[in-house]
């Protein structure tokens, strides 16, 4: 028998000793969300003045990230994110973070074929008796990064929930170079973003499209939370989970007896996810739960996998749409807000599912900081970053209705989109459609 405890002792280091392996010009990965290596990040930041051009990748991380905060010059550390949390969005606004465009189902392939990782630093659960450390709610991204890294450092976080997985949910001590221990603050109890009245209105319009036994992918924000809240109160039953991000919306469905995963075509009986962000109650529910399976995003977000699930329903949000049906979901103008994530993955996958549907939702208007109201249906994007191309967009919803753009011509799209725009902006949008020659004279009522 291997003496894993002896191996553990031999690889144990202080954070300060571990980060000595980082050299000028290195690429360092912090992986994702709760995988952020808090103690190692703090120790690496202390080496600022002796290091130059060290580049760090992460995503969906709460603050502070010490290496980003300690070096305004970016001569020593440069931070990058491939999906911005609210905190990382603030870093982007301050010029302290650079966004990496990434389609999530290709996450593993990016690392395997195109990216170099000198050092990976990742928080894990405590080692089990077989010598494995659990990647926990970071399973969606961690293993492919660790496999590519020249040096693997794990930071044992005593608060990490243990997550059962399909594959790649753990790393063995034999694949680890250094181990860090230390006391960690409990995770912040992230509360679900409360749905607005407009979110509830849109959710009401979506409910009739969902049938018993549907499998759900819910994105981030008030709209998907509103759908989860209303589904929990509905008459629907035997719903299932297959989602890149597990949130408290699924916990609400489970507590209401709606989430059973009984009729899934694949992974029957198990709710599948890649990453999880939410309340401590959510993490407690996920902890060592046989009804839950975490997988890498290369599986969770693969359109081919998604398309195998009957009645797959994908519900995501966006910032704006133009009259051609192009969707901007990750930025406002050039300002990075979140990331490409899995919206396109689930659009394609759910569209290929028998009985599947993919919804992109938004309020019809937004109000800027000066109190001016703007339409989220735009005449035509000009310089905006497109997340989902018009050829892939399926259902779109506002509080004024739900439309289906699949197979629709340019004038049909314009007509449908104007019908769900706020009434105050419809005449303007008709005029803009006419100028672009995508409006039939007979449409004008």
UniProtKB/TrEMBL annotation:
SUPFAM superfamilies: NagB/RpiA/CoA transferase-like (SSF100950). The active site is at residue 244. It is found in: Cytoplasm. Residues 5-186 form the Acetyl-CoA hydrolase/transferase N-terminal domain. The keyword Transcription does not apply. Its EC number is 2.8.3.-. Keywords: Cytoplasm, Fatty acid metabolism, Lipid metabolism, Transferase. Residues 278-433 form the Acetyl-CoA hydrolase/transferase C-terminal domain. GO terms for molecular function: acetate CoA-transferase activity. GO terms for biological process: acetate metabolic process; acetyl-CoA metabolic process; butyrate metabolic process. Pfam families: AcetylCoA_hyd_C, AcetylCoA_hydro. It comes from the Bacteria. Pathway: Lipid metabolism; butanoate metabolism. CoA binds at residues 219-223, 319, 342. The keyword GTP-binding does not apply. GO terms for cellular component: cytoplasm. It catalyses: butanoate + acetyl-CoA = butanoyl-CoA + acetate. Coenzyme A-transferase that converts butyrate to butyryl-CoA. Belongs to the acetyl-CoA hydrolase/transferase family. This is Probable butyrate:acetyl-CoA coenzyme A-transferase. It comes from Coprococcus eutactus.
């Amino acid at each position: 028998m291997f003496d894993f405890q002896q191996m553990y002792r031999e690889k144990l280091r202080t954070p300060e000793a571990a980060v000595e392996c980082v050299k000028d010009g290195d690429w360092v990965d912090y992986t994702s969300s709760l995988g952020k290596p808090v103690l190692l990040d703090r120790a690496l930041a202390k080496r600022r003045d002796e290091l130059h051009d060290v580049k760090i990748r992460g995503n969906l991380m709460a603050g502070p990230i010490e290496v980003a905060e300690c070096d305004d010059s970016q001569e020593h550390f440069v931070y990058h994110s491939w999906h911005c949390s609210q905190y990382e969005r603030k870093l982007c606004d301050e010029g302290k973070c650079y966004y990496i465009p990434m389609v999530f189902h290709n996450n593993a392939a990016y690392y395997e074929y195109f990216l170099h990782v000198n050092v990976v630093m990742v928080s894990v659960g405590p080692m089990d008796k077989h010598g494995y450390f659990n990647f926990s709610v970071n399973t969606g991204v961690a293993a492919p990064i660790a496999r590519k890294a020249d040096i693997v450092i794990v930071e044992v976080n005593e608060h990490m929930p243990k997550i059962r997985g399909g594959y790649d949910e753990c790393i063995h001590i034999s694949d680890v170079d250094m181990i860090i221990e230390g006391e960690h603050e409990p995770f912040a109890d992230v509360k679900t973003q409360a749905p607005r009245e407009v979110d509830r209105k849109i959710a009401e319009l979506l409910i009739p499209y969902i049938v018993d036994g549907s499998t759900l992918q819910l994105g981030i924000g008030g709209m998907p939370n509103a759908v989860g809240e209303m589904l929990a109160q509905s008459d629907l039953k035997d719903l299932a989970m297959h989602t890149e991000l597990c949130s408290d919306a699924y916990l609400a469905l489970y507590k209401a007896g709606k989430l059973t995963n009984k009729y899934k075509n694949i992974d029957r009986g198990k709710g599948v996810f890649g990453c999880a962000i939410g309340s401590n109650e959510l993490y407690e529910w996920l902890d060592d739960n046989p009804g839950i399976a975490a997988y890498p995003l290369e599986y969770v977000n693969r359109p081919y996998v998604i398309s195998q699930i009957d009645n797959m329903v994908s519900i995501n949000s966006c910032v704006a749409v133009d009259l051609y049906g192009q969707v901007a979901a990750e930025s406002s103008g050039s300002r990075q807000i979140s990331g490409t994530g899995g919206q396109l993955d689930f659009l394609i996958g759910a569209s290929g599912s028998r009985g599947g549907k993919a919804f992109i939702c938004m309020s019809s208007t937004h109000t800027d900081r000066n109190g001016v109201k703007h339409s989220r249906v735009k005449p035509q994007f000009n310089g905006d970053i497109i997340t989902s191309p018009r050829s892939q967009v399926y259902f779109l919803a506002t509080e004024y209705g739900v439309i289906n753009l699949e197979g629709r011509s340019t004038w049909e799209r314009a007509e449908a989109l104007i019908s769900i725009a706020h009434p105050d902006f419809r005449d303007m949008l008709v005029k803009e459609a006419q100028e672009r020659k995508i409006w039939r004279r007979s449409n004008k009522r």
